[in-house]
Amino acid sequence: MINSNREKAIRRITLLKKHFDPSEDFNRELDNCTFDFDLALRVVNDLRPKVHHQVIAAVDSIMKQNHFKEKSREAARFKANYWVKKILSELYDRGVLTPHKVIDHPDLLNRCIMGISPFGGEISTKFAIQIGLYLKSIKNMGTEIHQDELLRAATLEDYGCFCLTELGHGSDVSKLETTAHFDPISNQFIFNSPTETSRKFWIGNLASTATKAVVFAQLIINGVRHGVHGFLIQIRDPEIHEPLYGLTIGDCGDKIGMQGIDNGWIMFDNFKVGKNSLLNKYADISPDGVYTSTITSKAKLMAVQLGSLSGGRIAITQVSNDCALAVSSGALRYWAVRKQFKNPKTKKETRLIDYSINHYRLITRFARHFVQHAGIAKITEFWDQFLQGGSGPDNKMTGFAHLISSVSKAIYTWNTFDTCSEGRQACGGLGFSSYNALGSIIPVMDLNRTWEGDNNVLMQQAGKLILQNLAYVFTEKPLMPTFEFLTSEIPLVTPFRKTLNDVTNLLKLLTIRAETLIHQTGMKLQFADDKVEAWDKLLPFNIYPMTFAYFDRFLLQNYVDFLARLEEDENTQKVFTLLGIVFAQKTITENGEFFKDYLTNGQMEELKETLMENLAKLRKEVVGLSYLLPFTDKMQGAISKFDMKPYKNFLDFVEKAERKSDYNFDDDVVIPSCS
Ligand SMILES: Cc1cc2nc3c(=O)[nH]c(=O)nc-3n(C[C@H](O)[C@H](O)[C@H](O)COP(=O)(O)OP(=O)(O)OC[C@H]3O[C@@H](n4cnc5c(N)ncnc54)[C@H](O)[C@@H]3O)c2cc1C
């Protein structure tokens, strides 16, 4: 069994790299594994649609390993734009995607393409701007008069940008200051930036690439303010690529990372555009200049306009977890080769992967990201159900879609950033080299915590929606998906005497925590005299812990359901169960304060010992498990490649880097038109 697993693994890796020449370390690590490689690979692959794997394969075929930064901002920007064109052309040529498929399923392309982030976060971000934000906004808020624009966006005839944030307001977009006055005589909108803080700022693609923009502004007709609306406008002359009259466009300048994205600012000075520029699905202006909307509340209109754009959050959630898995599993492979200090007993040098502290540092994280890997498949399923319900105000999944996209984006990107930082340290000095993937990933993972909704703001929004379910319990309204555990009874505080090395029992404990914290927080808010003040004060010790507790429970419940897919092989199921157990045990040890009413000190000590024993068991499996993940060899850092020859691979890079760059940018990439 064990040998045949190794052969299967080698077969798989041979596919990954044609001339694969595994090291001795590779053979030893794969010999350690007790799970059925084929079954595990099938089940893990099934967590993603086939097109995701096809996109990765297509991109892998045309890219070189690409983890180092360009020296100048201009070169980085040129490279990012070049690869967007080249990759889209390759995907269309191969028939993996068509422009119409992109228009029909922009979220799908966005998710697949974000999966290539380890090749370069700037490239996937450029796709996210063009497809996930620009094209998707036109699709979501536009009508038949905007249909041609979709095709132009999908074939890169137009490069677009998404202008929501202003210098003065990012998270609270209802306070945007840019104005769009409608002039019924000329049938035009007149755009203005009335203050310095109304300057649209941070806009990706704006500084030098985009010719068109989706712009959000306060719509004013005859002096009446109708709230924030989306508009599609031409911003640069398509022939000479200069800003149009009435616009001033600038560059946001140097950033702490992501130099390949040309972030820009724009100001409007009596800039005039025709009436069709209003993206008029939810609100329109009649020929005699009267405003009409099916949605009466300004806040609801805003939520509906921006709601389905949160698909970008799902893509970020997925890609951040992929990067965390790439970094943690890559570091584990390096650790399986790297030796430091002699063991006084054996007199042999110890591999870094064999130190218990290192099990705790990285295998606990690897386990969490594996559980999250299964989680994102479920989150995506929920998201697709929401999309099927349409983007209008009657979609019953709207609240839950906002909850799940907000909480998952915040929690995944936070712990991914921490994992990348730990992974960087795990590789010591070599972790600081740009050739080892970590350096270029960290700034992208940093930014992921802020854009598409600042994480702290998202946690508050998620908290409100969690508490809404508590209200539903008491008013007997249907609960949102994932809240089936919530009842009107606060769980009794009773000693928990079951074994703590069983995934079902651990799920019970995480359920008690989630349910109790939801009830306790709900009660504190209900009995507060000043609810606004109470909300603010309860955030650190009540609302955040409740939100984390809800999400940890969701992840483990989903993982327990996922384990059923591995029933056909006991060993494989055991190994995957261990990942879930480690995730839950670590979560419980980190939340000891809450569990002290349920577990004695003795139980807590025993739990920690069991966690360390489980980590030692997983140590034998983790390198093998890393070969199941949807990454290609080129997506790894030089020291964590699949052949496990870190020194040779790293030196190859260092020596090559001294020579001239061998990138050869052919300028004549053609995007096939879809007709
Ligand atoms: C590289 C980059 C690219 C970007 N690309 C685009 C783009 O293409 N298009 C676009 O429109 N925008 C873009 N943005 C803007 C981005 O979406 C915003 O920066 C983000 O939404 C946060 O808004 P803000 O910067 O105004 O921060 P703020 O909202 O001012 O937040 C600052 C801090 O205040 C905290 N805070 C805010 N509200 C509360 C509250 N109620 N309670 C407690 N704390 C709070 C936040 O948690 C945060 O820590 C980009 C930003 C960057 C850096």
From TrEMBL:
Q: Which GO terms describe its molecular function?
A: acyl-CoA oxidase activity; FAD binding; fatty acid binding
- Residues binding FAD, per UniProt: T165, G204
Say yes or no: keyword Glycoprotein present: no
**Which domain of life does the protein's organism represent?**
Eukaryota
- The Acyl-CoA oxidase C-alpha1 domain is annotated at 307-466
Q: One of this protein's Pfam families, by short name?
A: Acyl-CoA_dh_M
Swiss-Prot/TrEMBL cofactor(s): FAD
Gene Ontology biological-process entries: fatty acid beta-oxidation using acyl-CoA oxidase; lipid homeostasis
Q: What does UniProt give as GO cellular component? A: peroxisome
Location of the Acyl-CoA oxidase C-terminal domain: 503-659
The record places domain Acyl-CoA oxidase/dehydrogenase middle at 161-270
Give the annotated active site. Answer: E452 (proton acceptor)
Provide the alphabetized UniProt keywords. Answer: FAD, Flavoprotein, Oxidoreductase
Record's family? Answer: Belongs to the acyl-CoA oxidase family.
The name under which this protein is listed is Acyl-coenzyme A oxidase
What organism does this protein naturally occur in?
Answer: Euplotes crassus
